[in-house]
Design a protein that fits this description.
The chain has three helices and seven strands. The protein is α+β, with helices and mostly antiparallel strands. The protein has a three-stranded antiparallel β-sheet with strand order 4-1-5. Strands 2-3 form a two-stranded antiparallel ribbon. A two-stranded antiparallel ribbon has the order 6-7.
Length: about 120
């Protein structure tokens, strides 16, 4: 998988045949079979052990690991989940100024923009 240092959200796909529920920082995440849910990387780490070497705490929270002999079954279920980075794209809107807009103190501000001529 690609470098995830700058990724803040993941799309998690439930490839199992059962609904999966988890909670992180007061937010409930419910993944129905075959569906994907977007969540913060930290939530995926807490709920599923994403990016964490020891997945035991997450498997216990999910209820998939009730005894050590169930570890192989729990890891098999975990392997049916898909994790894909979600790249956020933000569009910044420039502040629009119009002639006659009021300033901070109520004065009229002339905010006309001069055209720049392309020299070339």
């Amino acid at each position: 998988m690609e470098e995830l240092d700058s990724v803040q959200f993941l799309s998690v796909k439930n490839g199992t045949d059962r609904k999966i529920s988890g909670r992180f920082h007061g937010e409930d995440y419910v993944l129905k079979p075959g569906e994907s849910v977007t969540m913060p990387v930290e939530a995926a780490a807490h709920i599923f052990g994403f990016g964490v070497d020891d997945k035991t705490p997450a498997l216990h929270r999910l209820g998939w690991l009730t005894a050590s002999q169930h570890a192989e079954v729990a890891m098999e279920r975990l392997s049916k989940l898909g994790f894909e980075p979600v790249h956020q794209v933000f569009e910044l809107e420039t502040e629009r100024r119009s002639r006659g807009k009021k300033g901070r103190r109520g004065e009229i501000v002339d905010s006309a923009v001069e055209d720049v001529e392309d020299v070339g």
